[in-house]
Amino acid sequence: MSLTVALVGRPNVGKSTLFNRLVGQKIALVDDRPGVTRDRREAPAKLGDLDFILIDTAGLEDAADETLQGRMRAQTERAIADADISVFMVDARVGITPDDEHFARLIRQGGKPVVLVANKAEGRAAESGLLEAYSLGFGEAVAVSAEHGVGLPDLYEAVVATL
Ligand code: GDP
Ligand code: MG
Description:
The chain is α/β, with parallel strands linked by helices. The chain has a single domain, classed as P-loop containing nucleotide triphosphate hydrolases (Rossmann fold, 3-Layer(aba) Sandwich), CATH 3.40.50.300. Strands 2-3-1-4-5-6 form a 6-stranded mixed sheet. The chain is globular and about 40 Å long. The structure holds guanosine-5'-diphosphate (GDP) and magnesium ion. The site of magnesium ion (MG) has 5 residues, from helix 1.
């Protein structure tokens, strides 16, 4: 049976960038505008010697009259239910926002193993955000830079530790 991993978190933290990197193809659409990925994407991905199915979440595929929060919630809940592990991503440069705390509650309710990842962790601007992430209650965040490919061995270790 194959392993399934869900990439969850509020818009614009870099989920699709990490998805693209681990899938190795430009399947997910990446854009500067928050929440621009239009569909849930899933594809075979690889991290070190670990092969798995990776689910990217975005929240814009449903009815236009729903709120972004509602669409994100529905899609996140579905992805967590379908996955063995959730990778919860926050933005180390921005720090923890009320939206991150909202997602933290959703993800906790999902009851699946969680790996907390603080993305955009390249450079000094990320240090305080990394510390703040601890307050979410998922332990210490794994610092990565999806864009620059930094921290992937640490992410591998954290994912393997949940198996
Ligand atoms: P999503 O909404 O969570 O899927 O986020 P995206 O993957 O679409 O990325 C949102 C923005 O963050 C884009 O402008 C990305 O280029 C940028 N981004 C993603 N990863 C990194 C990173 O590691 N460092 C920095 N500085 N920017 C990043
Ligand atoms: Mg996206």
